[in-house]
Structures are given as structure tokens and as C-alpha cells.
Amino acid sequence: MKLLTYNIYFVQNDTNIERQISLQEFEEVAGETLSEMLGIASLMVKKYAIRREGEHEVLHLWCAYREDAALCTNCGSVTTKANPIETISIKHSDMWGKETFLHFLSRRFECEQCGSSFNGDLPIRT
């Protein structure tokens, strides 16, 4: 997965101040420890950033999908033809006393069998 170099805008905090983070602020993650701690089977943590935002430290985790395939919602066949659509950011449970956000790309698939297009499932239901 290629990481894009633009700013990521995401959910607003309690004071409705929009925050942003650039991918240049992220550092590579070694191993699978953070991914296992998240407990989300379909995502793996690739990069992280810890920033002070106001009076709190905030943990940002850039994630990628473990699988590059999905089942077609029309015919049920497996397809791997996907295009990233937009960056999704979701607040996760706090980790180590830090407010935690997951960032990842949503995907739109095109079925190679029937030609229909569909959105991939989000790894987290909100």
C-alpha cells in the first residue's frame, strides 16, 4: 500500500476544533504488537505518531488492510480489484492513557466476474 503525503483531516474533538496530521509525522512500526493490541483482525498498524494536542497526548495509528480481497455483494465471487477512495479516521479506545485514532483508506471494489462495484466493509462498525 502506498502512503499518500497529504494532510489527513479527521473527526472533531469535544471542543469542535478540527485537528489534522500529516503522514510525515508518522514513524514505522516494527512487528505486530500494536496490531494485536488493537484486536481488529482485518487491520494491521503500519505507522504511528504521538502528538500533544491541547493538554493531552494523542496516539495516531496509520493502518492497512490485512487482505486485499473482498466478496462481491452481487455474485459472491472473490475480487481483488480495489481502488482507495478516501481516508477514514475513527476514534478507538484509549491506549496507555492516550486518546487513540485509527487512520486507513476506504476501498471500492470492482468485481472481475460480474462487473458490479461495491464498497469494501469497514473493519470497524461505529
Task: Walk me through the structure.
This protein is mainly beta. The chain has one domain (7-119). 5% of the residues lie in helices and 54% in strands. Strands 3, 4, 5, 8, 9 and 10 form a six-stranded mixed sheet that branches. It has a two-stranded antiparallel ribbon with strand order 1-2. Strands 6-7 form a two-stranded antiparallel ribbon. The protein is elongated. The two termini are 24 Å apart. The model is unreliable at 1-18 (pLDDT under 50).
Estimated radius of gyration: 16 Å
Helix content: under 10%
- Low-confidence segments: 1-18
Largest sheet: 6 strands, mixed
Number of helices: 1
> Using DSSP, what is the number of strands?
10
What is the end-to-end distance?
24 Å
> Which percent band covers the strand fraction?
over 45%
- Helix-strand pattern: EEEHEEEEEEE
Shape: elongated
| Structural class by SSE content | mainly beta
The domain count comes to 1
Q: What is the mean predicted local confidence, pLDDT?
A: 78
Give me a quick take on this structure.
By secondary structure, this protein is mainly beta.
How would you summarize the topology of this molecule?
Blueprint: E1 7-12, E2 18-22, E3 27-28, H1 33-38, E4 43-53, E5 56-65, E6 70-71, E7 78-79, E8 82-95, E9 98-110, E10 117-119
Parallel strand pairs: 5-9
Antiparallel strand pairs: 1-2, 3-4, 4-5, 6-7, 8-9, 9-10
Features:
5% helix; mainly beta; six-stranded mixed beta sheet; two-stranded antiparallel sheet; 126 residues; 1 helix; disordered N terminus
